[in-house]
Amino acid sequence: MTSFTVCSPVDGHIMGEYLASGSREIALMMAQARDAQQSWLTMPVVRRTQILGGLRAVMFRRLDELVDLICALTGKTRTEALLGEIYPVISLLDYYQRHAPRLLASQVRQTSPLLFPGSSATVHRRAFGVVAVISPWNFPFQLTMTPLLSALFAGNGVIAKPSELSLPIGAVILSLFQELGLPERLLQIAYGDGQAGGQLIAAAPDLVCFTGSAATGRKVMAAAAQHPVPVILELGGKDAMLVFADAHLERAAKAAVYGAFCNNGQVCVSVERCYVEQSVYPAFIEAVCANTATLKFGLDGDLGAVLGQFGLVEAHYHDALRKGAKASGELKRDGNRLAPVVLWDVDHGMAVMQEETFGPLLPVMPFNTENQALEWANASRHGLNASIWTSDLAKGRRIGRQLRVGNFAVNDVIKNIGHPGLPFGGVGSSGFGRQRGPEGLLAFTYPVSELANTGQCDQEPNWFPYSQERYQQLKGYLDFFFGAGTCQQRACRNLAALVAMRGYATLNLKQRWQNFKHAITWHRGY
After folding, report:
1. How far apart are the first and last CA of the chain?
2. Catalytic residue among 85, 164, 234, 272
3. Alpha-carbon torsion, ordered 276, 280, 282, 284, to 10 deg
4. 10-residue averages of pLDDT along the chain (526 residues)
5. How far apart are CA 76 and CA 305, in angstroms?
């Protein structure tokens, strides 16, 4: 059986050895999760919410332990671990604890008393069943916990598979939830690499939530399609930052440095393309270079470790220099540390402006007009996040709404994806589906439509027998509800058809009149 040894990128010490979950073990996990999910699903949403809400106290009690583990496992700084991994989970937990009962409640939909006599319409939200969560190494805690919590709040069981570089996070997550008293085996962890992920999908979960590269995302889609299983994909990005001449330049420069280099650029929404209006371009380059020079490595510093992307970062850096770009310095590597570099005089013929780098490079390019900036920002096959920088808030919003992305911020960077009430996800090669916000919770359910009839009518308007007379009546019926003119005009010209509808009910005249008044009211609000 394959085993994995996980070592810290900080000092190389062994953090644990893990046996890969085999196909038989995963099949058993799936069966156990299905059994556990049935008892979880029958539990009232309010009760599920109360149980999961207890996780907040557990996390606060073990906060330093979690931060230390994340830092050792990923090489992050302590502040990055706290704000990038722990805070988003606590805020989402709090949001769903307050709003999940309302969001998951059944919704009554408006029904025409004449088109659907004696009927009511309702939409219910139902959990898929067992959700497979396949998470990446760059934010192993947050990007495992976010879909995991959403799935559990919605009533699902979960089997999560962390990256083979982040396996210790799985055991810690299990230990957190064991303090809550969930149904046994409702939440389970599968260990291993991509092979284990493939076996997990082959076990036919009811939904797959994958976060990772576009290349692997395509494989996940292909594997899930064999069953078929619906998927939520959060893939890579090539996020654009648009800086206009009227922006607060000092703020924008600091934001660019943070947006490009937090977690050493290993963020799906890192600033990977920075477009700056020509008139402020030289001053902006000077400012970002000066800010970059102040960044420090260390546990309580600004920068941590880089995991496994050295080759791609180096390729993008050297390709840009060969094609005429200028750099703030050499690309210096010291173990797992990689010094951040600002690149300018770049163009779209360079790989660093086309492909996801996922490392500490910030390419900056000037633009002349708003239309040019929009065209360049939308030229990427990715469409995850973006930011617009201007003192004119209306202008920033207008430009943002023209960007082909799933999310954008005006005069802020990255932080928008941490808002628990906002859905997060991409378009194009950045994937589809949403996490966080009401949409993110509902994504782990499917709608069930209910139409209930009191059964008091002898028959319905659409039932047999058909005839030419019936056809004319139904045509008048449709004209009354959807034709041209005022409600009174439609009623007058279709009075015979409306009177004929009395034959479809055994209701008394008073009830028919009430139905007619309800129909008029319904149509006015249609």
Report:
1. 62
2. 234
3. -70
4. 92 95 97 98 96 98 98 97 97 98 96 79 97 97 98 98 97 96 97 97 98 95 96 97 98 98 97 98 98 97 91 97 98 95 98 97 98 98 98 98 98 96 97 97 98 85 90 91 92 89 52 54 50
5. 6
Instruction: Break the chain into its structural domains and give their ranges.
Output: 3-104+119-235+439-448, 239-419, 455-524
**In terms of Cα–Cα distance, which of 127, 156, 125 is closest to 447?**
125
Q: Does domain 3-104+119-235+439-448 fall into CATH 3.40.605.10?
A: yes
Phi-psi region of 109 (alpha: psi -120 to 50; beta: other; left: phi over 0): beta
Answer yes or no: are the C-beta atoms of 257 and 291 closer than 8 Å.
yes
Phi-psi region of 507 (alpha: psi -120 to 50; beta: other; left: phi over 0): beta
> What is the sign of the dihedral through the CA atoms of 416, 422, 428 and 429?
positive
> Active-site residue 234, yes or no?
yes
DSSP state of 86: I
Is 7 an annotated catalytic residue?
Answer: no
Tell the CATH topology of 239-419. Aldehyde Dehydrogenase; Chain A, domain 2 (3.40.309)
Q: Which of 71, 268, 274, 289 is catalytic?
A: 268
CA pair distance 132, 201, nearest whole angstrom: 7
Round to whole Å and give the CA distance between 235 and 425.
9
